Amino acid sequence: MEKHELTRGLSVGPQITAEDIDTLAAAGFRSIICNRPDAEGADQPNHDEIARAASAKGLEFRYIPVTPGMVTEADAEQFASALTTLPGPTFAYCRTGTRSTTLWSLSQANDRPLTEILARTKAAGYDMNGVARRIANGGKTPTDTADAKFQIVIVGAGAGGIAVASSLKARRADLEIAIIDPADIHYYQPGWTMVGGGIFEPAQTAKTMGSLIPHGVKWIKAAVAAFEPENNAIILDGCRVVKYDRLVVCPGLKLDWAGIEGLEETLGRNGVTSNYRYDLAPYTWQLVSSMKEGRALFTQPPMPIKCAGAPQKAMYLSGDAWFKRGVLNKIDIQFMNAGGVLFGVKDYVPALMKYVEKYDATLNFFHKLVAVDGQAKTATFEVTKPETETQTITTEFDMIHVVPPQTAPDFIRVSPLADAAGWVDVDQATLRHKTYDNIWSLGDVMNAPNAKTAAAARKQAPTVAENIMSDLMGKSAHAQYDGYGSCPLTVERGKIVLAEFAYGGVLKPSFPKWLLDGTQPTRAAWFLKEKLLPPIYWKAMLRGHEWMAKPEPLSAKSE
């Protein structure tokens, strides 16, 4: 028999027989709820038959029949009451388990976040997105249909969201566009590496969100709770509903600080820092500039992460600072990488290795950070090398730069838009959703196999804008994204290895080799990173000026 755990106290499943009671009793269940009306199916045992078998085994039984597709608020309240009065754990069943799961979801609407309810039910094998609006509304059926409607709705006002809104407006000024994002501040995240290296001030990387929303675009300052793609609707926190003709999804990704035991309690203290957070990047430079001896750990989690080179950028800039202060020989630099290579595009590795050697850094591959004890100044790693058993090691540190594990946001992972791994499922060339043809995605949240960088979003935004315009005119997509990504690897203050590549690790340089050889450290690349890229970001990309980012025509092969 099937049983799927929703909580420690409740599991659900499809129709059971009297013979299954022995299995449930042996598994420790103490009560059963039947949510299936009698006589739904010719081979269905009546509820009283199950009740007698349950009683014989000392299990309590409750009959709460629900007609398919007609789960009422009263049903959910009765189910919730049963869970509080019956001895647990409880097993609830109907024909497939869906009605029982729906009842639980609605009964928990006022006690658990919507994302948690959707995540638990999805993990159990049941998709509750069809009642997400009711869950968001406290378990009650909303009486309204929509609070607002737009031609184009964009979820996320990060680099990708604002860039695509501006690119669309540049193509047609009268488009009715809304951007949904709850944040007050927009961050230029590529600058945080420079903050952690003592080069930029934090304020250089932040602007108010309101100052960046394109003219004529409606900013809905709210969080998304769920998607109803079948109804062209988005549910916001508080159960407000926004409808769209076309949707662009680009909320970025989630930094899972809680995924490393003990990390949240010690961040920003005890020598524990990260350039992946605005308020922590200055602490990185504080630690680096004051450190005279000891061990410095730099970690990299499993892929995918935003800016795959950022973990080692922190290491190089720190090593350079210690080298120039003459204390490098007293500092033990350890790079703890969950992956098996220094950088995913091999053409850039030789230049990087010269700096690994210059800073006498030890490369530890297949080392995944799992715990940090700030007070004891120890870090614990799982070491999983190919064809060997996993080992756990604990290492002392004086300073540790942590890069957290990263996933799609919860409201994306549990949505109908996500693939099995939780990322928005798109065609990698057109960036159109594979199932819903009026939805596109770009930036870190979608599943195309490209590097998750701001430079990638800069190329993706015009592609999405161009293909939406084609769709508005009733035409097929005619622009493609080639997987371009860029990672300016800050190997020392004043020099950068400018990694530029497309799908499959194919090199994709923006400049001729005589002007800027990206496989070698150059001052020209540093000038680009320090002086040119920030204004290009603020004044070009976010304003719809597609400098060196014009969309490429879709090839027959891509179609």
TrEMBL record:
GO terms for molecular function: transferase activity. Keywords: Plasmid, Transferase. InterPro entries: BLH_phosphatase-like (IPR005939), FAD/NAD-bd_sf (IPR036188), FAD/NAD-binding_dom (IPR023753), Prot-tyrosine_phosphatase-like (IPR029021), Sulphide_quinone_reductase (IPR015904). Pfam families: BLH_phosphatase, Pyr_redox_2. Residues 150-270 form the FAD/NAD(P)-binding domain. Residues 6-110 form the Beta-lactamase hydrolase-like protein phosphatase-like domain. NCBIfam families: TIGR01244 family sulfur transferase. This is TIGR01244 family sulfur transferase. The lineage of its organism: Bacteria, Pseudomonadati, Pseudomonadota, Alphaproteobacteria, Rhodobacterales.
